[in-house]
Amino acid sequence: MQHDLFSSLDSLLSVPAGSGGLLIRGVTGQYRLAEADEVLLAAQRLLAAQVRGSDLMDSPAVVKNFLRSRLGHLPHEVFAVMHLNSQNRVLDYVEMFRGTVNQTSVYPREVVRDALLRNSSALVLVHNHPSGEARPSRADEHLTQTIKQATALVDVRVLDHFILAGEVICSMAEMGLV
Predict the structure, then answer these.
(1) 82-115, pLDDT tens digit by residue?
(2) Most distant pair of Cα atoms in the chain: their distance
(3) Which residue, 15, 37, 40, 123, is most buried by CB atoms nearer than 10 A?
């Protein structure tokens, strides 16, 4: 049964002390106990609203929390791109490619195309490692350099490539790999 869960974040209400859950209003207007995936989705939407329009350099904790909530729990790899304007404010977050438990196919041409469509000035690349190891592989390093070269041809900079493994986030820029 579909529910109009997010017509308003006001639809999430605290449950009286001791009940240990949240109430959510369905399309009929009745309140019921929210399921775990509904709570997670509401949290992701709230974090997305905080990230969109924020300055990436001034709010790394918000961005990392958003990324953890989106990718940290997935059992398969996802490659995503955060699109930034010329002031490094987040324009959009796009999950571009989905893979298997240990790999995903990423097409630099599609990353460039999407950056041009969104009028991005810079990108932050993101993907997860369900294996639990956040360190970049040689393939990750090669992919980052390939995308960096491809986007440079159209004056779009790659600022970083984050790799998530559960709660751990590795920044390739901090490692000197971007």
Answers:
(1) 999 998 888 888 999 999 998 899 999 999 999 9
(2) 58
(3) 123
